[in-house]
Amino acid sequence: MDRTVYLNGAWVAEGEAKVSIFDRGFLFADAIYEVTAVIQGKLVDYPGHVARLKRSLGALGIAMPVAEEVLLELHKQIARRNGVEDGLIYLQISRGVQDRDFVFPETMEPTFVMFTQKKKVLDNPKWKTGLSVKTVAEGRWSDRQIKTVQLLYSSLRKTEANREGYDDVLFVENGHITEASSANFHIVTQEGVLVTRDLSNALLHGITRGSILHLAREAELVVEERAFTPQEAKSASEAFVTSATSFVTPVVRLDGEKIGTGETGPVSGKLLEIYIREQLAAGIPVAS
Ligand code: PMP
């Protein structure tokens, strides 16, 4: 294959076209795309694709990287340069390149790529035979136990919350908290019971969560793994999140209301201390 592709304003041989590993499309699925068919040298339904492209970009707050006239010209040119009479034009625009962070700045330089694929669109054998299909559960995206890079929703909500002055969000589903944008969420009741969401496809099975629960049980805390509501969290004596790099971090306010005293609490403080002590003792040295 020796196609010419479009990359951020330049025509490039396909083998030379490189996108950074720090691109948010790669790290967060923070990107949109369109596919337009070409039949007998004609762009199919082009205005509809441009309209949807603008809607998608608008919804994500990504600026249109080129003027509409330029976009049309690019579609024509890429088809001509690659001799595509029948096939498709794929375009993708990501928010751009940034050191990995769920929170992104207001303005970024989008990454814009286009490529073609030749395909006999008008010569589809299935038009004669038809398709055979099966049903599957609608799960786009409800498999949160998988640590995928499909992080766009989390990133959007966390960025929005940051701009409103919050540190993070807690996702609520059917009236119950699942977890934070990139951490598991736990509460300690007024009776001193550590309550955390039970494991299911509704949340990521945090490694830190598992270790902290183990340490909590060793420290003879009562642990309950079950769903709980934001109301229960607000009346807890303390709350905290766990994750690989935040360890145990207290949560002191929820939707503007204090949790417990509104100060960091003793249970999360103790668990943080035990966890760090244990990992410093048992962690694998990198220097060997
Ligand atoms: N939930 C989500 C959605 C996460 O992205 C993460 C990790 N960043 C966690 C929980 C915590 O998991 P771990 O303790 O393995 O870092």
List keywords for this structure.
288 residues; alpha+beta; D-amino Acid Aminotransferase, Chain A, domain 1; D-amino Acid Aminotransferase, Chain A, domain 2; six-stranded antiparallel beta sheet; five-stranded mixed beta sheet; 29% helix; 24% strand; binds 4'-deoxy-4'-aminopyridoxal-5'-phosphate
The string of secondary-structure elements, in order, is EEHEEHHEEHHEEEEHEHEEEEH
**CATH class of the largest domain, anyone?**
Alpha Beta
Ligands, ions, cofactors: 4'-deoxy-4'-aminopyridoxal-5'-phosphate
What structural class do the secondary elements suggest? alpha+beta
- Name the helicity range: 25-40%
Report the strand count.
15
At the fold tier of CATH, the topology name of the largest domain is D-amino Acid Aminotransferase, Chain A, domain 2
CATH architecture grouping of the largest domain: Alpha-Beta Barrel
Largest sheet: 6 strands, antiparallel
Average residue pLDDT: 97
Computed over alpha carbons, the radius of gyration is 25 Å
| N- to C-terminal distance | 45 Å
Global shape: elongated
